[in-house]
Amino acid sequence: MKSIPRIGMTGEERIVVGPSNQIVFADDVMPAVLSTPWLVAHLEYASRDAIVSCLEDHERSVGTFIEVEHLAPTPVGFTVVCKSRVIHVSGPVVTFQIEAHDGVDVVARGLHRRRVIDARRFAKRLDRKRNKADSKPS
C-alpha cells in the first residue's frame, strides 16, 4: 500500500433506479424498485472508492464480508446515494460502515469488509485453480 487507510476515509456512489437495476419480478401487483443485489454492489463500489488512493498500481481491494439491512424500497427514477466510511483497519483488512439514502428514507445500512491484495498473485492463484480443475478426471 502507498499509505495505510485512515479511519474516517469515505467513498460515495450514486445509482439512478431504472430498468437495468430494478427487481426482475415487478408486475401489475409488485411495483418496480431497486433490487437488493444492485444496492449491495454499489455499497461495495463506494467502499472500494474510499481506499483506492491508498493502493499501489498492482493492488486491488476485494470484498470479503458484507452485512446489509435493506430498510426501504426505492422506486424507479429516484437516485440512491451509497456512502461508505472506514471504521477499522487491521493490516490489509479494512472495515467500513455503509449506508444508502434515496432523498426520503435511509434505504440500507450495514458493515462491509475488504482485503487489499496483490492482483498479480491473485491472478496466479486463479491460474493454479484452473489448472487443477482441468487436470481432474471427468
Could you explain the architecture of this structure?
With 138 residues, the chain is α+β, with helices and mostly antiparallel strands. The chain has one domain (10-135): Roll (Thiol Ester Dehydrase, Chain A). It is built from 2 helices and 5 strands, in the order βαββββα. The chain has helices at residues 36-51, 119-135; strands spanning 10-16, 59-70, 79-90, 93-101, 106-118. It has a 5-stranded antiparallel β-sheet. A hairpin with a 4-residue loop joins β4 (93-101) and β5. The longest helix is centred in the C-terminal third of the chain and has 17 residues, at 119-135. It is flat and about 50 Å long. The relative contact order is 0.22.
The helix fraction, in percent, is: 10-25%
SSE pattern, N- to C-terminal: EHEEEEH
Q: How many helical elements?
A: 2
Write down the CATH class: Alpha Beta
Shape from CA axes?
flat
**Biggest β-sheet strands, sense, barrel:** 5 strands, antiparallel
* Alpha-beta content class: alpha+beta
What is the fold-level CATH name, i.e. the topology? Thiol Ester Dehydrase, Chain A
**Strand segment tally:** 5
Low-pLDDT stretches are none
Q: Gyration radius, to the nearest Å?
A: 18 Å
Mean pLDDT: 97
CATH superfamily: Hotdog Thioesterase
Number of domains as seen in the coordinates: 1
* First and last CA, distance: 42 Å
Percent strand: 35-45%
